[in-house]
């Protein structure tokens, strides 16, 4: 490109417009306009390029769209603008959070110094590619055990406080509150609002989950969104959010989308509800059903107690109808007669035994008496004793003149031996 170069006086600094930015210095600066034209000329050489990313901003002004596209792997973004004539050729359902491929051409505005890209074509990224990536992540997480039923926490029967993560003023919030309050009017909620699509969805949902999980009063957490196309639900399959839910200590209920929607959050949550309405029904018991159940249990208990009482009364009546209980005095009288008979028999047996032993004792006493020395002495015999109480059994023990003591049947007396006695005329010696 040829530029006009005005003549300059020797020794005088060239005007800024004539100095190329590459040749500029403190003594010969270039002008802002020349710098802007140089940048614009360089940018125009780039031509059009195709880029892939996620729409993070989409502002409609006067039929034109001004927005931003973010790189999927980093936080790098570019500004885009879509003129109304181009917008008419694009899909009508483009929105924040969509993953797109766009044909853009760089442009630099010298007057404002703004740099942006003009969009000439834009379309959604092929859903098949996204689903393939999600399935790979799903397989990886399943292999790590994050979907195992053994690690899922049970929901409380009647939560005192329910944590709710949803979009502000969303239909999902209204559905959860309305259905929960219909089932249990005194139910309480602690709600944390978060973006449910777009680039803010994942960080805001994780922040809300962290806050509710740290609250000791919260018994269960519901993450609710009122459905949407697969593009808008991508945030609920994000690995960061899924792992945060798996690490939560409070039971988490996933209520994302409708029955056919299936983000990865459904697999890792402790309970998957098909809709926000279904989540309210699964988390909060129905007070009418519980009252009916209590009435049913009371009725069953009352019937059971009545049946048991009737059975026991019947058993008592059967026992009372037996003879032994109908006339208990008869049994006592019979036992008394038997006891009296046994006592009489025992007394008779004892008396006979005593009489027999008495007779036996008398016989033994008579035998003992007959054999005793006293009986012999009573019959006229005597026992002679010499000094020391020695019984004289031989005449030689008492020579003539020996003093002896003679014991007879009634007493004893002293005597003196007179000499030997003719043994032929001596009577029998005492025993």
From TrEMBL:
Name it.
Exodeoxyribonuclease 7 large subunit
Top EC class for this record: hydrolase
> Could you tell me the keywords of this UniProt record?
Cytoplasm, Exonuclease, Hydrolase, Nuclease
Q: Where is this region: Disordered?
A: 1-31
**Annotated InterPro entries:** Exonuc_VII_L, Exonuc_VII_lsu_C, OB-fold_nuc-bd_dom
Domain called OB-fold nucleic acid binding: residue spans: 31-123
Fetch the CDD domains from UniProt: ExoVII_LU_OBF
Summarizing the function annotation, the protein's role is: Bidirectionally degrades single-stranded DNA into large acid-insoluble oligonucleotides, which are then degraded further into small acid-soluble oligonucleotides.
The family line of this record is: Belongs to the XseA family.
Location(s), subcellular: Cytoplasm
Please give the subunit comment from the record. Answer: Heterooligomer composed of large and small subunits.
GO annotations of cellular component type: cytoplasm; exodeoxyribonuclease VII complex
| GO-annotated molecular function | exodeoxyribonuclease VII activity; nucleic acid binding
Exonuclease VII large subunit C-terminal domain location: 146-364
Provide the GO biological process annotations: DNA catabolic process
Quote the catalytic activity from the record: Exonucleolytic cleavage in either 5'- to 3'- or 3'- to 5'-direction to yield nucleoside 5'-phosphates
E.C. code: 3.1.11.6
